[in-house]
Amino acid sequence: LTTVRELYKNQDKYIGQTISVGGWVRSIRDSKSFGFIVLHDGTYFETLQIVYHDKMSNFAEISKLNVGAAIIIKGELVATPDAKQPFEIQAAQIEIEGASTAEYPLQKKRHTLEYLRTISHLRPRTNTFQAVFRVRSLIAYAIHQYFQDRDFVYVHTPLITGSDAEGAGEMFQVTTLDLKDVPKTKEGQIDFTQDFFNKPTNLTVSGQLNGETYAMAFRNIYTFGPTFRAENSNTTRHAAEFWMIEPEIAFADLNDDMMLAEGMLKYIINYVLEHAPEEMNFFNQFVDKGLIERLTHVASSDFGHVTYTEAIEILEKNNDNFEYKVSWGTDLQTEHERYLTEEVFKKPVFVTDYPKDIKAFYMKMNEDNKTVAAMDLLVPGIGEIIGGSQREDDFDKLVNRMKEMKLNEEDYGFYLDLRKYGSTRHAGFGLGFERCVMYLTGMSNIRDVIPFPRTVNNCDL
Ligand code: 4AD
Ligand code: MG
Q1: pLDDT tens digit string along 427-441?
Q2: Is ligand 1 within 6 A of the CB of residue 88?
């Protein structure tokens, strides 16, 4: 079978030739002695028009086809210079591979994204989700290419762990214990010695801690895998299961980290604009007007920089308009992040040097002893897309911080070891993959950029 992509890319080669294509019926319209089918084969954003005639032996069956049916067409590709599409197929033969019923949920009309979420097994057959998931695939490829071209080693970090990388306690526990009859210790605690791993374990919230160990062996590494968070945040930007890209670089500080992040994001933008022009035009026209112009501008201009302390000064002036008022020490909410990047800087902006108390235990303490060498990258339309930091590489300082934060040192033995055996300055960040897809497509709900989203109260399919 030829693909519709191939026909579009090399049309001169195929015009006048007899070819075969397989795909799904998007729409069908028949007259007495002929009819038209619009076919989508999934290989290309554009569709293909098919003309069929009553000279075909199964004309009656073809005319009765419903939207959604899978068919294979053989016929001549003819140029249609006056039509919207550059060519169509004059069918000589149409094989019905799998019929579809009249109840097929995707009829030729506009469906809401909310409705399409209820049929996540069929929504990839729509234009919007064809575009979203092809671009998602290309972004993943671009990210690998960016790091591989720079000799970063791709490290597969574990999904089941015994530690909490962020120290925030937002983990899904993993257990083989029977919840109806959980074994208890004499003290009445759950007896995890009877569990598979002989101790409590959970799904990872980040591959960073394991990633750091490989950066101390390979210098530059990255992870790219699923992470899980049991945050009770029912928002358009939070998922319980999402993918994260976490590079870690040795002999590097926070500035190197920000340069890496900026370079990566610009690379991805350029890659997608170049490799998915049809999809990006679709988003630009139907999802987020002005998207392409904005992204093009972002890819060719410098990102903004502001310290947390400066950001608070800016935000305090606008406190009247915020639901949550800010002052030095408060964590930034989405409304503050979006105000900074959309109203003040009007471009992606790095916020650096956050108060230690609102950041994770592993971040390097600044000389003021109040702030840490952290950076968040905020982008218009979303807010935080990247979170990163230079890591605390001093053994004593790290142990002190862990004590202050009441973390169990035993769970982090391997991590502390790194600070004993050839410790060096190093830094890294985490890019939320789904938030990156949202940013590049203009889609405004994280549920619409994940094939089968897992969010609060939702684990269907
Ligand atoms: O800021 P976070 O929590 O940072 C870390 O996990 C670090 N270990 C990263 C590192 O330094 N190696 O998460 C990183 C990014 C966020 O900026 C956000 O884009 C995304 O991950 N993220 C989520 N995306 C979707 N749903 C959630 N619940 C998310 N939580 C974080
Ligand atoms: Mg963060």
Answers
A1: 999 999 999 999 999
A2: no
